[in-house]
Design goal:
Length: about 500
C-alpha cells in the first residue's frame, strides 16, 4: 500500500492546542472574542480533516514523522482510511457542539465561557491526537489529555456535577493506570512503542506472559475509558449532570474514540487470531457487550429524567459497538464501526435536544414535556428522527448498522447475540417512544396555565430556541438520515479498506 507524508496530521493536533492558550489571554482582554477564536480553530480542524480524508482516499495512508525522525526513533502519526473517518467525525461533531455552546453554556454554566472554550479546545486536540498517533506511549499521553479535559468540562456543571466529575476522575485514573502498565509490559519484551514495529515483533512473543498480561491490562483500561459494562459507573452521573453541550461532546466523541483505540490495538497492533484464539478476549467482550445492551436499555426505561435516560441508553449503545468489534468478522466489524459513527450523530443530537429543552423550558422530567411539539416543533422533530435511528428504523443510519451487526452475529453463528440485538431494540422503543408520546400529547388544563418557556429576544412565535442551538441539532438529525441513505459510500470508501486481513 502506497504511503506518503504530509504535515496535515500534526496541524490537526496543533491548531486547537494553540487556540486553547490564546483563548484565556483574549478572555482577560475582551470575552466577546473568545467564541469567534474557538469557532475559527474548530473550523480549521474540520477543514484539515477534509483535506486529510481526500489525501487518504486519493493516495492511500498518510504519515508524519516529528522532526523528520522515522520510527522507531521518532514520534510518528499515521492516518489510514479508518483514522480519516474518525477524524472527520470528531472534528465535525466538535464544530457543531462548539456552535451550539455559544448560548447554552451561558445558561447552564454562567461566567464560565473562557475556561470552557479553553478546555474544549484542549479536548479537541487530545482526541485528534488519539486517532492520529502511531505510538503506544503517545496514545497514553493523548488519552490523558482528553480525559483530564473531560473531567474539567463535566465539573463546570457545578453542584452534583462536581461529584460526578470526581467519580469520573477516580475511575478514569484507574483505567489510565491499567493502560500504562500495559505499555510497560509490551515495551519490556519488544523494546519498541511504535505500533507498526510492535505489529511485526509481537507474533513471535504471543506465548509470553508479559504480552498476555499487557494485552489484558490494555483491554481493562480501555473498557473503563469507554464505560463498557460492568465498568460504566462513571457514565450516568457524568452525562446527566454535565452541561448539555459537554454531555453531547463526551457522548458523541470520547467513548467512540476509546472504542476506536480498542479496535486499532486489538486487530492492527496484535493479529486478530491473538484475541480470538490465543487469549479469547473477543468472547469475553462480546458477552459484556450483550449484557450492557440489555441492562442499559432496562435502566433507561426506569428513568424519569431525560438526560439520565439518555445516559443509560449510551451504555446499551456502547454495547452495540463493542459487540460488532468483538464478533471479529467482516460484517460485525463493519456494523460496529458504522454504529460508532451513527451513534455519535444520534446521541450527540439527543443531548443537544435535551439542552435546548432545558434552555427553553427549564424542565428535564419527561412527564413535563406534554405539548412540547407545538412550542418546539423542530426540536421535537429532531428528537423523533434520532429516536428512530436508536431503535433501528429505516431509512436512518441506525437501521443499517444493526443489520450489519445481525449479519455478523449470523456469520459467526452467535444466535444468542441476534436475539440480544432484537430485544435491546425493542426495549429502546420502550424508553424512546415514551418521550415522544409525552412530546405530542396535548397539555392538561393545569399545564396550560403554566409557562412553557420564555421568548428569546428577536425570535418568532413557535420555536424559541436560538438559531445557534437549533441549527447544529438539525444538522445532526439530518445526518442520521443521510448516513442511512449513503451508508454504502461510508462503508466502501472508509470501512472496507480498513478491515483487517484476519477478519475477512
Amino acid at each position: 500500500m502506497n504511503i506518503h507524508q504530509s504535515a496535515t496530521p500534526i496541524l490537526l493536533v496543533v491548531v486547537p492546542l494553540i487556540a486553547s492558550f490564546v483563548v484565556p489571554l483574549l478572555g482577560w482582554w475582551n470575552r466577546r472574542l473568545v467564541f469567534p477564536v474557538a469557532l475559527f480553530a474548530l473550523s480549521c480542524s474540520f477543514g484539515l480533516a477534509l483535506v486529510l480524508a481526500r489525501q487518504v482516499l486519493n493516495a492511500g495512508p498518510v504519515d508524519y514523522f516529528m522532526g523528520g525522525w522515522e520510527p522507531p526513533w521518532g514520534i510518528a502519526f499515521h492516518i489510514d482510511h479508518l483514522a480519516a473517518l474518525m477524524l472527520l467525525l470528531l472534528t465535525f461533531v466538535t464544530l457543531l457542539v462548539g456552535i451550539y455552546s455559544k448560548k447554552s453554556i451561558v445558561k447552564e454554566a454562567p461566567d464560565q465561557e473562557v475556561p470552557f472554550y479553553s478546555v474544549y479546545l484542549i479536548l479537541a486536540s487530545g482526541l485528534t491526537g488519539l486517532v492520529s498517533t502511531a505510538d503506544m506511549f503517545n496514545l497514553y499521553v493523548f488519552l490523558e489529555i482528553s480525559s483530564l479535559s473531560c473531567y474539567a468540562l463535566v465539573s463546570l456543571g457545578g453542584g452534583v456535577a462536581v461529584v460526578s466529575a470526581f467519580r469520573y476522575v477516580i475511575l478514569g485514573t484507574v483505567g489510565a493506570a491499567f493502560y500504562l502498565l500495559s505499555v510497560g509490559y509490551l515495551y519490556s519484551v519488544t523494546g519498541s512503542l511504535n505500533m507498526a514495529d510492535l505489529a511485526g515483533l509481537l507474533p513471535s512473543l504471543y506465548e509470553s506472559n508479559a504480552v498476555l498480561v499487557g494485552f489484558s491490562f490494555f483491554v481493562i483500561g480501555i473498557s473503563l475509558k469507554m464505560a463498557l459494562f460492568p465498568m460504566h459507573a462513571w457514565l450516568p452521573g457524568a452525562y446527566s449532570n454535565a452541561p448539555s453541550a459537554v454531555s453531547a461532546l463526551v457522548a458523541g466523541t470520547t467513548t467512540k474514540v476509546a472504542a476506536y483505540v480498542l479496535a486499532r490495538v486489538m486487530f492492527f497492533v496484535f493479529e486478530p487470531n491473538f484475541s480470538i484464539d490465543t487469549l479469547p478476549v473477543t468472547t469475553v467482550l462480546s458477552w459484556m457487550a450483550a449484557i450492557a445492551m440489555i441492562l442499559g436499555s432496562v435502566m433507561a426505561i426506569a428513568q424519569s429524567d431525560l438526560k439520565r435516560m439518555l445516559a443509560y441508553s449510551s451504555i446499551a449503545q456502547i454495547g452495540y459497538i463493542v459487540l460488532g468489534i468483538s464478533l471479529a468478522n467482516e460484517m460485525g466489524f463493519t456494523g460496529g464501526i458504522l454504529h460508532l459513527v451513527n451513534h455519535a450523530f444520534m446521541k450527540g443530537c439527543l443531548f443537544l435536544v435535551a439542552g435546548a429543552i432545558i434552555y427553553q423550558t427549564g424542565r428535564r422530567e419527561i412527564r413535563s414535556f406534554r405539548n412540547l411539539s407545538s412550542t418546539m416543533p423542530w426540536t421535537t422533530a429532531a428528537f423523533t428522527i434520532c429516536a428512530f435511528g436508536m431503535i433501528g428504523l429505516p431509512p436512518t443510519g441506525g437501521f443499517f448498522s444493526k443489520v450489519y451487526l445481525i449479519l455478523g452475529a449470523i456469520d459467526g453463528e452467535h444466535w444468542v447475540f441476534v436475539g440480544v440485538i432484537l430485544v435491546s431494540s425493542v426495549l429502546a422503543i420502550g424508553y424512546l417512544a415514551n418521550v415522544i408520546r409525552y412530546m405530542y400529547l396535548p397539555a392538561t388544563e393545569n399545564e396550560l396555565d403554566e409557562p412553557v418557556g420564555r421568548t428569546i429576544h428577536g425570535a418568532s412565535s413557535g420555536e424559541k430556541v436560538p438559531l445557534t442551538m437549533l441549527i447544529p441539532l438539525l444538522i445532526l438529525a439530518s445526518g442520521v438520515i443521510l448516513l442511512g441513505m449513503f451508508n454504502g459510500v461510508v462503508i466502501s470508501q472508509f470501512i472496507d479498506p480498513a478491515i483487517p486481513t484476519g477478519l475477512r
